Amino acid sequence: MSLLGCAALLVCWMHCAAQRACEGPPPRRVKEVPAKTWDKPPYPHGTQAIYNCRPGYVKVGRVGFRCIDGVWKELSPGTECRNKPCGHPGDTDFGFFELTSGTEFVFGARVEYRCNDGYQMLSQRNYRECQADGWSNDIPHCEVIKCLPVQEPENGRIIMTGAFELGQEYSFGQVVNFECNAKYMLVGAKEIVCSANGEWSSDVPQCKEINCDVPEILHGYVRSPRKTYKENELLQFFCEEGYKYGSKADALCTASGWNPPPYCTEIVCSRPVISSGNFIPQKDKYTVGNTITVECDDGFHFRAITGRSTAECTKNGWVPEPACVRKPCEYPPIENGKLTDSHERYRDYYFPKRFGQTVDYHCLNGYSTPTGHYWVRITCTERGWVPEPKCLSKYISTIYSILG
């Protein structure tokens, strides 16, 4: 080969070798960093670059690149450093946590802590972060929320189960009960609760002397000039005409008010039910002063002997009672006959007769009773006098006897 040919071949070889080198350093990686400094390019074909894991990551296999024909290619494609695990971040008493960044407890993860209702975060930081050297800061701490001390109400006291001291703070959920001294009543909540926000559920109640104001009584009034009554004092009241006491004519002042509540109710007479008769006017209810007129069926009359057949609605009900009864037996006028002397002489006294009562009669000269007996006893019944009192002429009586 000539000298000129050898020179050309050498130039060609040198040019081809320069093209196969990698002009730049190995690629930058998020989780890995080259094990040495690469600041003197170019890098010949076949050069290897080995990587170490950045802080917070751990190796899973060998991570590296090789220069091949001017391009950096992975030695083991897909191999990379993994996030370093931190383990469980730790639970906190009276609280809980949730993962707010990431899906596992590995480098870069963040958990935030929350306190249960009634508790508050005592720590300055409510979170922990998984760092290269483990979890940051201590586990956050929750403490119970407190409510300010409670003072006893004037003329009252605090009631609590368990030991307690006046002036102490109370924890969330604690309940304070109150009661008043005798003759005082509680105004406000009987119990208050220390809430989750550190506030009491209600203000401390007051104990006020038990007083009852004179009430407004519809259709009623109070004669006493007093405006208020104390506990166990009695109020007397009255109802207007046509009204009556709802339950009693007086009421007792108690811690819960008037007992029983004083009220007046309209006096109402119910619609009467009259057997063997009827009445007018017909209404659903009747008030004091209303009257009805009773009409009895044949053979009956108004029960009360007043000369009238009306009844009035009064505060005591219907007066007189509206009822129809069978007519009693009046004095029996007997043609040609007489009752006993006393019944004849004092007929207004002896009559009318009630059912079941009896009288005797006899006939005058020339006349005879249907039975022929001198004295015949008749009885007052629903059908009148039985047997019917009759006096027949003796001639007719004889015919009856013959026919009988």
TrEMBL record:
Keywords, A to Z, come to: Disulfide bond, Signal, Sushi
- Give the subcellular location: Virion
Fetch the Pfam families from UniProt: Sushi (PF00084)
Stored SUPFAM superfamilies = Complement control module/SCR domain
Q: Which domain of life is it from?
A: Eukaryota
Domain (Sushi): give its ranges: 20-83, 84-144, 145-209, 210-266, 267-326, 327-393
Q: Which residues form the signal peptide?
A: 1-18
CDD domains attached here?
Answer: CCP (cd00033)
Family matches, as InterPro entries:
ComplSys_Reg/VirEntry_Med, Sushi/SCR/CCP_sf, Sushi_SCR_CCP_dom
PROSITE patterns documented for this protein:
SUSHI
Its recorded name reads Sushi domain-containing protein
To which species is this protein native?
Junco hyemalis (Dark-eyed junco)
